[in-house]
Amino acid sequence: MPPVFQTVLLLLCSNVFMTFAWYGHLKTLSDRPWFVAALASWSIAFFEYLLMVPANRIGHTVLDVGQLKILQEVITLSVFIPFALLYLKEPFRMDFLYAALCMLGAVYFMFRPSFGG
Predict the structure, then answer these.
(1) How far apart are CA 106 and CA 24, in angstroms?
(2) How far apart are alpha carbons 104 and 42 in whole angstroms?
(3) pLDDT grade, residue 84 (50/70/90)?
(4) How far is 16 from 61, CA to CA, in rounded Å?
(5) How do residues 59-78 score in pLDDT, each as one tens digit?
(6) Where are the alpha helices (DSSP H) in 1-117?
(7) Residues 6+ apart with CB under 8 A from 89
(8) What does the alpha-carbon distance between residue 72 and residue 8 come to, in Å, rounded to a whole number?
(9) Could you tell me the sign of the dihedral formed by the alpha carbons of 102, 103, 105, 109, in that order?
(10) What sign results for the dihedral spanned by CA atoms 12, 18, 22, 25?
């Protein structure tokens, strides 16, 4: 599997853990003290890092750090929006679409040097 695909797959999985670590406690632990939520989040984040660190190492063999970062942000938004809508039951807002369009612009600028621009 090409390094970029390995990176995307690992970052996608990593982001699922990250999103649950950062926001899952809002639904499942809202009645508990914040430090209980923090400990639970740290436990989940451990698995995020087990995927994210190798993803960035593999990705850095073919992408520069800026490209890795914007790839991470696009994947984060791609995981976060369904999470917010389906798991947290947040209402859909057009701002999700506008943010995604802004991210596409950021992708263009970060990857433009790769295409001779």
Answers:
(1) 28
(2) 31
(3) very high
(4) 24
(5) 999 999 999 999 999 999 99
(6) 3-19, 25-28, 34-59, 65-82, 94-111
(7) none
(8) 8
(9) positive
(10) positive
